[in-house]
Amino acid sequence: MVIGLYVPGDSLLHNLSAGIKLGTLFVFGTALAILSSWWVQVGALFIVLILWKVANLGIQRIKQIGWMIPMFALMAVLVNAYLGSWEQGFVMGIRIITLVLFSMLVTYTTTLDEMTHFFTWFISPIKWIGGNPEMIGFAVSFCLRSIPMIITVMEDIREAQIARGQKANVLHLAVPLIIRLLRISSEISESLDSRGFNARSWR
């Protein structure tokens, strides 16, 4: 499920290296955290939406974030509005949506191998202190690509609950989500083991 999130294509974003995309995501996120003007946040969201168009991913994939991210954004708006002002709340909400869309964009246009190779190269100096850059690089890239998968699972569970007439409830969502994620992690672990992927193979 996680590996299959990559969407093949020949767009400009697909052809960019993983290092450029991940570096841009880091700089982009840092800039949004520093610059608190609402027009900067709106402009950044507009830029990300343009990039989605350039990547030819389609509006349907944006809908995959479902109701969870807008809900978290709304909570951020209300909390920041209560602690500060409505403008601060608006800025935080837009910032969350923008960064999630950008991270999904990177995930959809970058293969797992590309991410793994980049992180392995980036942290290769840890070999000098006895570290294992290959294992860490795979773990980091795998975690990044798991975020959209978790959001998709949450949305599937919520849609099933709505179909059964159940009202929104954090506990009712959390329990099946944990069970589903444990099941998925077990399947992924067995799949990796069957391919000879284990801690010893990296030593």
The 3D shape can be described as globular
User: Sheet with the most strands?
Assistant: none
- What is the gyration radius calculated from CA atoms? 19 Å
Question: What fraction of residues sit in β-strands?
Answer: under 5%
User: In whole angstroms, how far apart are the ends?
Assistant: 27 Å
Features:
203 residues, mainly alpha, 2 domains
Write up this protein.
- This protein is an all-alpha fold and about 200 residues long.
- The protein has two domains: about 1-110, no CATH class; about 125-203, no CATH class.
- Helix content is about 75%, strand content about 0%.
- The chain has helices at about 10-15, 20-35, 40-55, 60, 70-85, 85-110, 110-120, 135-165, 170-195.
- Helix 2 (about 20-35) runs antiparallel to helix 6 (about 85-110), helix 7 (about 110-120) crosses helix 8 and helix 8 (about 135-165) packs across helix 9.
- It is globular and about 50 Å long.
- The model has no long low-confidence stretch (mean pLDDT about 80).
